[in-house]
Structures are given as structure tokens and as C-alpha cells.
Amino acid sequence: MNIRKWLLSMVLPPPIPLRHRVYSMSIPPDASRSEPSERLVDLALKAAVRARNLKIEGAEERNMGRINKWPGEHYRMLAALVAELQAKTIVEIGTYQGRASFAMRSQLPLDGRLVSFDVVPWTSVQPVLLKREDFADGRMRQEIADLRDFNVMKRHADLLQAADFILVDAAKDGEMEQLFINNFRRLGLPKGPIVMFDDIHEWKMLKIWHELPEAKLDISSFAHWAGSGLVDWPRSAVS
Ligand SMILES: C[S@@+](CC[C@H](N)C(=O)[O-])C[C@H]1O[C@@H](n2cnc3c(N)ncnc32)[C@H](O)[C@@H]1O
Fold first, then answer.
1. Hey, what domains does the chain have and what are their CATH numbers?
2. Which of 28, 77, 110, 139 could serve as a FRET partner for 203 with CA atoms 20 to 30 Å apart?
3. Whose CA is nearest to atom 11 of ligand 1?
């Protein structure tokens, strides 16, 4: 345990003894810089209904944990959102073991594409859920690129500007996600995608999430226990 975590557990001893926990703060809606849009409320309700009966096939065989655990984990909700949006172009930032990629790919249409960005190739992550066969039909690929750099993001402009759904699941260090947001604004996302941020209840994500001026909705109870937020990204002009 690092010193920061140890100090926290001294000052704020957990009311329930848990190994894996996230320190957070409950923030009333009037402190938020934006409201949910009708589109987000409709989408979240429909996706939650769909997630209830959706099973991510093949997940158990890979023996990588609670992919089909719902509510609590976000994978079934991610798959349901892809299906509900009829998303053809999906972008993920943060591949890691590929759990979310695997879940979203399960609902990707035959003419769809899923591009997952990371700074580390999935082939060097252990253990990993993904297998080479998941990439065989060409609908899914990984890009090794750091989208914090606007010039790097610009190289992927055609893809990002065609995105229907973007999952942001990277470092949550209080800075990285803000840089992606700034770059999305600077680039312009003319399709007005749904952007989902993971772990919005984590301490270092609270400020970024609550200060987002775009229409947004916290859907954590139907997605990830550490916080899931949907943003209705405005159809912005291309830079
Ligand atoms: C929480 S994990 C992602 C989990 C993944 N979505 C899943 O479902 O298995 C975070 C990932 O973000 C990656 N990451 C860190 N910095 C990044 C960056 N600048 N761009 C893209 N990915 C980054 C890390 O290498 C790590 O693999």
C-alpha cells in the first residue's frame, strides 16, 4: 500500500472492510455545470432494459472475471449502448486486457469497426482477455498512439470524426482525460457521438466530470460501480 492510501485509510477508515475501494464524494446536481439531455435519458433507459437480458457470449470461456456481472460491472451496458445506438464506428481509449473491447465487439454490426487506442500493445498485457482470432475479420483493431498529443489525434481525425460511440477509459490521473476532452473540442466531432467516461466517481475524475459543460448523465448503477458517465457530445464543426 502506498503512503497516500495508507494515510487516507487512517483519516477516513472505510466503514466496510474492503480491499478494492475507491474514495469519492457525493456531489449534488446543482454543483454540476450541465444537465442531462433528453437524448441521454432516453438512451440510458433503453440501454438498461436491453442490458438486462443481454449476455456477452464467449466471455466465461475466457475466464477473465465478471464480464457478465450486471448491474455492477459495465460490460453488458457497454454492449447494450452499442446495440441501442446501432453504432458502426466505435473508438475506445484504453484497451488494456480488452474486456470492454470484447463486450462492445459482441454487438458490432458486420460493417462496423472498433478501434481501441492504447500506449501499450494488448499482446504485451498479461493476463489478457483478447485473442488474435478477435481481430481476424478486420472489424476490430488496436492503435498504439497517445491521443493526449493533438497532432497525434489529428492523424486519426477521420476515424474520430466518424465515431458514434467513444469510450474513454485511460489513466484517470486528473489530467489525461481532460487533455482528451480538450482535443475532442479542438478537433470537432461533427457526428455528435455519445462519449462515455469510466470511473467518474474516482477522486481524480470528480472535477473533470462535474466541470464538463456538455450535456451529461451519470449512469453508474447500470454500468460501472466506480462510476460511468455518458456525454451527449455536441455536433461541432471540424477544425
Ligand atoms: C483501466 S485500463 C483500460 C481498461 C480496458 N478498457 C478494459 O476494459 O480492459 C487503462 C488503460 O489505459 C492505457 N493508457 C494510459 N495512457 C494512455 C493514453 N495516453 N492513451 C491511450 N491509452 C492509455 C493504459 O496503458 C491501460 O491499458
1. 33-232 (3.40.50.150)
2. 77
3. 94
